[in-house]
Amino acid sequence: MKLAAVDIGSNAIRLQITTVTSFQGTYGLKKLEYLRFPLRLGKDVFLHQAISEASRRKFVRLMGVFKELMELYEVDHYMVCATSAMRESVNGVEIAKEVAETVGLHIEIIDGEREAELIDKALWSSIDAKTYLHIDVGGGSTELNIYKRSKKIGSRSFKIGSVRTLDEEHVPLSIWREMEEFIASNLNRESSVTCIGTGGNINKIMELSNPRKNKRYLDKHTIKLVQERLISYSYEERMHILNLNADRADVIVPASKIYLAAMDAARSSRMIVPDVGLKDGLMNLLFEKVLQERGLANQ
């Protein structure tokens, strides 16, 4: 059986196709295909409250390509979820309806709480009885989850994202303070908090830190060093010297500021970077449904 998950973000759109494996009564997932397309829907929405006609046409064509790939891979079940750009766009629902009618893909436009809940599903392998702050920085929003003693005690979505904060005037200081207060009030000045960072930018920051093989964590000092290095380069230098994609080279600096602001509010000096995101949460949800269909939910 094959599954597909599509994450329609504010800075890029991702497709992952996975097959369900079975061996000696144990079920698992194996990735077959992953595609990331740099269509920045958030640029239109955060400036003009709507997806432009040019972006709309390209988006509908891209959904057609994704549908074609799903058919070629003979996908059995899929989920397509759109986050802050489409949910804030005045024509987001209209475009989702056009895709359903012309392409045959159903798009679910989800709120920030649902987004955080879905990412949760990909995180539990990193959660134990300690205290954690999960920071997921997207293009249009940042989702925060707080865990204590293996339970989630707080969750909130904030309109602070890497694309949105390219122009800091679009994010009032009051929202930054609201995010910091949410973290501080839920953690109640705990002295030992480990952060978990998800999103394409923190994974790229990890890569730029030249980590040891299999290392999946960063300390705050290292994140600051990478940030300083990024700031020292121009946009063009980040692409040509650091080999960053054009749609990563500009947003990675504002994203680093969001991660560091959250870490400061939590008084945390360490961040785990598990390299998972919304698409992985969607895939886990689909996998759970498959196991339930087969009466194997506890496998």
TrEMBL record:
Keywords: Hydrolase. InterPro entries: ATPase_NBD, GppA/Ppx_hydrolase, Ppx_GppA_N. GO terms for molecular function: exopolyphosphatase activity. It holds the Pfam family Ppx-GppA. Residues 32-283 form the Ppx/GppA phosphatase N-terminal domain. Gene3D superfamilies: 3.30.420.40, Exopolyphosphatase. Domain 2. The keyword Transcription does not apply. It is an enzyme of class 3 (hydrolase). Its EC number is 3.6.1.11. Transmembrane segments: none annotated. PANTHER family: EXOPOLYPHOSPHATASE, RETROGRADE REGULATION PROTEIN 2. This is Exopolyphosphatase. It comes from Lunatimonas lonarensis.
